[in-house]
Amino acid sequence: MTGTVYLVGAGPGAADLLTLRAARLLAEADVVLHDALVSDEVLALAPQAKLYNVGKRANRPSVDQRFICRLLVRMGLRHAIVVRLKGGDPHLFGRATEELEACRAAGVPVVTVPGISAAFAAASALRASLTSRGVSRSVTFVTPSRGAACPPDMHWAEAAAAAETAIIYMGALQAEAVRDALIARGVPPSRPVALVESASGKGERIIRGDLANLPNLVTQLGDGPAIMIVGEAIAGARAILKEASAA
Ligand code: SAH
């Protein structure tokens, strides 16, 4: 019997940032294949399901993407409701394309469910808008990280340098390269930077500084996932107040 595979966004960590749709699917799921970043609190919403941890973390042994695709298809051919639970939103840096294709090729119906991406949990932690009138009307999501098969282009750096607010996923291990690439493309070294670790989760931590000292800021991070935001907008209320008084 062929079931349906749901690629579901688990949100950034806190279980109550899951969508109601995601919570309902978890409660009904026969099988859940989940990322390393999905919290126990979220997995507890699927007590009846068989759980498979197919997680990947930077610099650690991880499950091969082809294996995940094969397992997903195998489960979809055998069970009614298969949830593939991904950190944040599945449509952003989540390898959804490969998994969608694998299901389509095998004739397994597949549906995606959006989630709150780390960028939005980080903005919330900072209590800062990613766009501020007069400060930023462009936001870009980039990563310097690339798979072995990807060409070593610098489009991510060009996009990040061109945006007023740049949100950098999976960049903490390459902080020096990120700083150098952005400064080389004209971003002022004094532009504010915030690192948010484990946004919305138990160990949430914020480290602030500027682009010039990004590599030092990164050394203060712990073991949780971290996202970097570069832009005047995250200086938040301070920048806006300064601007208002200058006007
Ligand atoms: N699809 C996910 C991103 C997956 S890539 C999303 O939409 O959020 C994994 C990267 O996301 C991590 O290396 C880190 O940069 C970021 N990330 C994920 N969860 C995070 C969290 N709770 N706090 C900070 N960064 C996080």
Query: Any idea of the CATH class of the largest domain?
Result: Alpha Beta
The rounded distance between the terminal residues' Cα atoms is 67 Å
Rg (C-alpha, Å): 19 Å
Q: Which stretches are low in confidence, meaning pLDDT under 50 for 5 or more residues running?
A: none
Helix/strand structural class = alpha/beta
* Proportion of helical residues: 25-40%
Question: What does the overall shape look like?
Answer: elongated
Q: Would you tell me the overall average pLDDT?
A: 93
H/E element order? EHEHEHEHEHEHEHEEHEH
Number of strands: 10
Number of domains: 2
Beta-sheet strand percentage?
15-25%
Main pleated sheet: 5 strands, parallel
Give a list of the ligands: S-adenosyl-L-homocysteine
The number of helical elements comes to 9
Quaternary state reads single chain
What is the second-level CATH architecture of the largest domain? 2-Layer Sandwich
**CATH superfamily placement of the largest domain:** Tetrapyrrole methylase, C-terminal domain
Strand order of the largest sheet: 3-2-4-1-5
What does this structure look like?
The protein contains 9 helices and 10 strands. With about 250 residues, the chain is an alpha/beta fold. It has 2 domains: about 110 residues, Tetrapyrrole methylase, N-terminal domain (Cobalt-precorrin-4 Transmethylase, domain 1), CATH 3.40.1010; about 130 residues, Tetrapyrrole methylase, C-terminal domain (Methyltransferase, Cobalt-precorrin-4 Transmethylase, Domain 2), CATH 3.30.950. Strand 6, helix 6 and strand 7 form a beta-alpha-beta unit. The chain starts with a strand and ends with a helix. The mean pLDDT is about 95. The site of S-adenosyl-L-homocysteine has 24 residues, from helix 5 and strand 10.
